[in-house]
């Protein structure tokens, strides 16, 4: 009996405590009902705003992708041979510079209209490479530097590779070397270590640093003995003999 009595007393105390907590909670809820409702409204607004922002950004990305695709198509449009007149049913450009000018206009429009989209990021890259293709190194460097600073490592490394090429072609050899070495130390899915090493070796070669070029080609053969990079390195070494 004593054991049963003690068990009953414990249950009673537990019940009273539970009821007291419930009563206090209800009492607090009633007193702070306005605050709870206000907090709930704020939470709903935040959620709706977040969903709205996500939906808006997705729609912007979709629209930007369409315009970006049109800009890329400009780069794929053929350039007519000298003296050939334009054909009504076959889009073409009279020169590489004419095509580049039109493409740059299209990419700039994407950047201006959809500045915070993925298409805009890629437009900066293509604007840079297109500018480089017609010798506008100032624009190329500005745009490619912008992309090189992005958190997207794959796109950033592509920009660094292109920027290094701009430096190499404008006799800024050391700037090119520094970028290639950076890419070698941190390869990505878009710029592999052997491709960066090959570009570095070729930069040494065209700038007259034959000893450095040989060393780099030999390093390629050692690191990637069975790959295409080693075969190309062997061909380059034959050229240097």
Q: What overall form do the CA principal axes indicate? A: globular
Q: Given the structure, what is the number of helices?
A: 10
Fraction in beta strands = under 5%
How far apart are the first and last residues' alpha carbons, in Å?
A: 107 Å
Q: What ranges have pLDDT less than 50 throughout 5 or more consecutive residues?
A: 1-7, 9-55
The secondary structure category is: mainly alpha
How many extended strands?
Answer: 0
Task: Write up what this structure looks like.
It is a single chain. By secondary structure, the protein is mainly alpha-helical. Among the domains are: 62-77 and 93-148; 171-241, Serine Threonine Protein Phosphatase 5, Tetratricopeptide repeat (Alpha Horseshoe). The chain is built from ten helices and no strands.
Features:
single chain; 241 residues; mainly alpha; Serine Threonine Protein Phosphatase 5, Tetratricopeptide repeat; 0% strand
Fold blueprint:
Elements lengths: L1 H30 L1 H44 L19 H18 L4 H16 L3 H12 L4 H17 L3 H13 L7 H14 L3 H14 L4 H13 L1
Helix pairs in contact: 2-3, 2-4, 3-4, 4-5, 4-6, 5-6, 6-7, 7-8, 8-9, 9-10
In a nutshell, what does this entry contain?
The protein has 241 residues and is mainly alpha-helical. The chain contains ten helices and no strands. Helix 4 runs antiparallel to helix 5 (137-148).
